[in-house]
Specification:
flat, 3 domains, alpha+beta, four-stranded antiparallel beta sheet, two-stranded antiparallel ribbon, Membrane-bound Lytic Murein Transglycosylase D, Chain A, 214 residues, Immunoglobulin-like, 21% strand, 8 strands, single chain, Muramoyl-pentapeptide Carboxypeptidase, domain 1, 24% helix
Length: 214
C-alpha cells in the first residue's frame, strides 16, 4: 500500500526517492496522489519540512536468466544536482578558481566557470559537502533551502537562507522574524533601491528570487 512521508529538513525529492528504493524522484513527484503537493511545489528542488508526500508502491520487475551462468545487474541510484554560484563581496563572479568538492565518498576537482558556477551530480543521500578553494574550507548544508511561498512560517526561513547566502547577517535561520532578520531585509532593500520597511512581501520575494536565482 502507498506510504505517506513527512518531509524533514535537509531532505529533497531525490533523497526521499533513494530512501524508498526509487531510482528517479519523478515517479513520486508525478504520481496522481501527489497532484496537490506538485501544485504547491512547482519547483521539485524546493520542498518544505512538514510537506506530506505519498510514496507509491514499487513495481516489481522480473527477469528471465539462464541457469548455470553469471549475470550482472546494474542498479541505478538517484543523484541530486548540486549547483553553486560564487560571488565576491562586490557581487562579481569568482571565476576560474580551482576547487575541490567532497560529498560523502566522492571528490570532484575543477575550476569555477566564467560566471562563478560549480555544478556536480552527487549521491542523493548526502546532506553535507565540503568545498575547498583558495586555501579556505567551507561546509555546505545541502537541501536546507526552503521555499518562500506557501509555507507554515510565511516564507521567513526561505528569506533568511537566501539573505544569508547573499552575505547578509540574519542571525539564526529559524523561521522567525527577529531583529537581525528584519535588519538584514532592510539592508537588502536599501542595496536594491527598494522601499525600506523590513517586511516580507511580494516585492521582496520577487527581488530575492531575481538576485538568488530561485
Amino acid at each position: 500500500m502507498p506510504t505517506e512521508h513527512v518531509v524533514q529538513q535537509g531532505e529533497c525529492l531525490s533523497s526521499i526517492a533513494h530512501k524508498y528504493g526509487f531510482s528517479n524522484y519523478e515517479k513520486i513527484y508525478n504520481h496522481p496522489d501527489n497532484a496537490e503537493f506538485k501544485q504547491a511545489r512547482p519547483d521539485p528542488n524546493l520542498i518544505f519540512p512538514g510537506d506530506r508526500i505519498t510514496i507509491p508502491d514499487k513495481v516489481v520487475k522480473a527477469f528471465s536468466c539462464a541457469t548455470g551462468q553469471t549475470h550482472r545487474f546494474v542498479v541505478k541510484l538517484p543523484k541530486r544536482k548540486l549547483q553553486l554560484k560564487l560571488l565576491d563581496t562586490a557581487g562579481e563572479p569568482i571565476a576560474d578558481i580551482p576547487y575541490i568538492l567532497t560529498a560523502g565518498s566522492q571528490t570532484f576537482e575543477g575550476s569555477t566557470s566564467s560566471d562563478g558556477k560549480i555544478e556536480h551530480d552527487i549521491p542523493a543521500k548526502e546532506q553535507r559537502a565540503t568545498l575547498t578553494m583558495n586555501g579556505t574550507k567551507r561546509v555546505l548544508r545541502i537541501g536546507h533551502l526552503n521555499p518562500i511561498k506557501d509555507t507554515e512560517d510565511e516564507g521567513i526561513s526561505g528569506v533568511q537562507s537566501r539573505l544569508k547566502n547573499l552575505g547578509y547577517s540574519v542571525g539564526a535561520v529559524d523561521g522567525k522574524m527577529g531583529p537581525s532578520t528584519r535588519a538584514a531585509i532592510q539592508a537588502f532593500q536599501s542595496d536594491n533601491e527598494m522601499t525600506v520597511d523590513g517586511e516580507v512581501n511580494d516585492t521582496l520575494i520577487a527581488k530575492l528570487q531575481e538576485k538568488y536565482g530561485s
